[in-house]
Amino acid sequence: MSILRAFAEQEYQQELAELAQQDTGKRPENWLLSPQSVVTYLIGGTLPNGFVVSPKYIGSRRLMEIAVATLVTDRALLLYGLPGTAKSWVSEHIAAAVSGNSTLLIQGTAGTSEEAIRYGWNYARLLSEGPSESALVTTPLLKAMQSGTICRIEEMTRMSPEVQDTLITVLSEKLMPIPELNTQVQAVKGFNVIATANNRDKGVNELSGALKRRFNTVILPTPATQEEEVDIVQRRIRDFSQVLDMPVDKHLLEEIHRIVTIFRELRSGVTSDGKTKIKTPGSTMSTAEAISVVNSGMVLAAHFGDGRVTATDIASSLTGAIVKDPVQDALVWNEYLETVVKRRDEWSDIYRACSEMA
Are the C-beta atoms of residues 96 and 57 closer than 8 Å to each other? Predict the structure, then answer.
């Protein structure tokens, strides 16, 4: 039975093995690769034996160097930025390269409790035996401390401030008190935390000053250029097509360029030639949303068309990605269609398809 999505350490097992074999740098204790090799795994490159490592993050190499260098110290890493700027993607791949295990994950939500971060109890054993090590239920954070590996905490600002602050002792003292057993767990060398957060979603809880001081923050920006963003979308679409065993339409690049152009213009509030100012919608217009629009168009074309992705195939998902608020965003989108898209002769098909959808 094939799985829908493999872990990073599974999908890129060969690359990690080649990097480990060719790695001549100094490795911190319990790291599988040296910091230099971890950055090569993230950014991509060619090894001395000619083996090509594919890029996982397309952007500033210096940002990745700062992120990896942070984990060598005793400070935790906070990847901060708008939704869809590859925070979770980078977090997963750093954990895979450093620890060989990206699965020690805590997903932050409004319902995340302190027990999900610290530890819990097997209540059947707790009632029959009382507090004991065998009744203790370890969390990913506790497992990472015991094994000297990376723990990932996603969407930390979605958790309540009281739950967030349970991390302060762990990050500052590198230990987890277990008063019920009159003991504590001390972190093994190699342990650290990578957290992700954004400030755009509703329900966001700001981190306290005490907690912020325990993190080194790296802000992941949106792609700097259109070419960079198109490259990101193309690579992710290629991965998506392989998972679903779906051929990539040779004309797809043209649609990707148009979608990325639309996203970048609505995100920046000005057309690509800089001549026309436009209103921006409330939606994030992230690269991840652009990838989703192309994915949806590919599926529609493959199963309900002739395989070639057309403007009609992408119109519904494009409209859905932009119009999150049926009133304000719809006005912005309709105005953009009439003032920008309609005036581009080569975009007449996408104008008609989106106007019909609107």
Answer: no
Match domain 8-215 to its CATH number in 3.40.50.300, 3.30.1330.60, 3.20.20.70, 1.20.1250.20. Answer: 3.40.50.300
Yes or no: say if 158 and 203 are a contact pair by the CB < 8 Å rule: yes
| pLDDT digits 0-9 by tens, 38-94 | 999 999 999 999 999 999 999 999 999 999 999 999 899 999 988 888 999 999 999
Q: Decide: 307 and 246 in contact? Cβ < 8 Å.
A: no
DSSP-based three-state secondary structure for 132: coil
User: For residue 21, which phi and psi values (nearest 5 degrees)?
Assistant: -70, -35
Strand partners, 277: 270
pTM, to two decimals: 0.90
- The burial of 267, by beta-carbon neighbours within 10 Å (0-12 exposed, 13-18 middle, 19 or more buried), is given as middle
Q: How many CA atoms lie within 13 A of 126 on its CB side?
A: 9
Q: What is the dihedral of CA 25, 97, 165, 86, to 10 degrees?
A: 120
CA separation for the pair 89, 284 (Å, rounded): 17
For residue 86 the two structure tokens come to 């590859």
